[in-house]
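pinned: reference chain
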Amino acid sequence: NYKGKYLLTLTGREDGASVLSKGNQWAFFPSIAAAWGINDEAFMSSQNLFTDLKLRVSYGVAGNSAVRPYQTQSNLMLIPFQWNEASALAYALQPQVGNPDLRWELTATKDIGLDFSILKSRVSGSFDYYDSETEDLLLLRQLPPTSGVRSTLQNIGKTHNKGFEISLRTINITSKNFEWSSNFTYTHNKEEIVELVGKQSDIANSWIIGYPINSFYDYEKVGIWQTADSALAKTYGYKPGDIRVSDLGGADGKPDGKLDANNDRKVVGSEVPRYSIGFSNDIRFKNFDLNIYVFA
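pinned: its structure tokens
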């Protein structure tokens, strides 16, 4: 802290997780943050609009070791059964196979922000732009039935998140017996997978490079087959009244008059919202409080 207006914070932390295998248990997490109190500069002394004005920048690495105990090992499960009229016990591998190579999932985030307050702090807010890159992503991967097991937890690739957040707070009315303040927040985020095992999309798990992790990979529904199109519907194996889907293309990328899971599916949506909005009002009248919150 220099002169109360130049702030610098440096931290370094090393964490360990005993649920991981030896050699992968420890990770180092550095961070740096700086802030400039613009409102404390001499050239701001003559203005009376801003009560506070601060610029912030930061960079840091965070980790995730969300691994259950013994998930690095392949475990046995007990299977009771009857042999003739006698009870017996058997053992088999758990459907989820262990992975001894599991390691920390690491996310590096860059952020630049601006805090302000005006009109004697009656109006205040902040703006933040962030950019996050995650590597060694921990995800449960479904395996082919021919493997003899169902799934395994893996560090399977990299993702990229970027966006901005805006928050605004206003003190609308303040008096001895009555207070009313409002808060508004807006967040816009873009998430995408940038790399997976094998450098290509994993269709079986609906992980598509260039799209969010939780995406819907399916046929594109474009309406209902009508009676006038019954002849065309029949060529696809449908009849009037059935859901109509797009013929996106065959092996050469052109519509081929057939629908198959390899060539005619696409990303049709995602669980990840492009934006979110929140608006709340806090009202106090004497000893009574009321909060009204709207979220979209």
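why pinned: The radius of gyration is 28 Å. The chain has a mean pLDDT of 92.
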